[in-house]
Amino acid sequence: SGRVLKPNGEPVIGALVRVAGAKDQQTTELQTGEGGKFEVEWTRTFATQPYMLVVRDFADNLGAMEDLDAADDPMEIKLEPALDLVVRTESRHAPVTNVDLLLSCRVGNSSVWMPGLSLKTNKPGQYEIPGLVPGKPYGLVVSAPGFGGRTFYQLPPTPAGQELDTVELEPADQ
């Protein structure tokens, strides 16, 4: 449990809060309520897996990631200016529109997996992952039914709103 604050200390109502950890973990996302308060229940799937609390406020483009193993209870999470990761996907110069993006973040010798963070944009084959904390060592798995996948173990540091190079996916029968 805890509360979420803007950089100026003002509570954030409606920020998205989720626990991220194991690759196959079911994720629950909830919103902060009055006074920026939240309460999230989660179950540790693997004893050695790090778990993070990921908080995003799209309205003001703010975000935070907190290590749940090192966190106090109740937590006080101060958001900071966030970045938006933009990914274009193509196959043979045509947009791929049914893509799944799986974002990860290195924590020590492990990765925290954050499925379901991507949003489709109004451009075919373009996806956005908004509200990410800058300076983190992110990785990305790009896949789509009928196509081979691509894994990027470490993404280059990206300023807010920067688009990554186009990800080319090959048809699965090739």
What would you call the shape?
globular
Enumerate the spans where pLDDT stays under 50 for 5 or more consecutive residues. none
Proportion of helical residues: under 10%
Total helical elements: 0
How big is the Rg?
A: 17 Å
Element order: H for helix, E for strand: EEEEEEEEEEEEEEEEE
- Proportion of beta-strand residues: 35-45%
**Structural class by helix and strand composition:** mainly beta
Q: Mean pLDDT across all residues, rounded?
A: 86
Features:
174 residues, mainly beta, 5-stranded antiparallel β-sheet, 17 strands, 0% helix
Structure description:
This protein has no helices and 17 strands. The relative contact order is 0.19. The mean pLDDT is 86. With 174 residues, it is mostly beta strands.
List the helices and strands and how they pair.
Blueprint: E1 2-5, E2 16-20, E3 29-31, E4 37-38, E5 52-57, E6 62-67, E7 75-78, E8 80-81, E9 83-91, E10 94-95, E11 100-107, E12 110-115, E13 119-120, E14 126-132, E15 138-143, E16 150-152, E17 167-168
Parallel strand pairs: 1-7, 9-17
Antiparallel strand pairs: 1-4, 2-3, 2-5, 5-6, 6-8, 9-10, 9-14, 11-12, 11-15, 13-14, 15-16
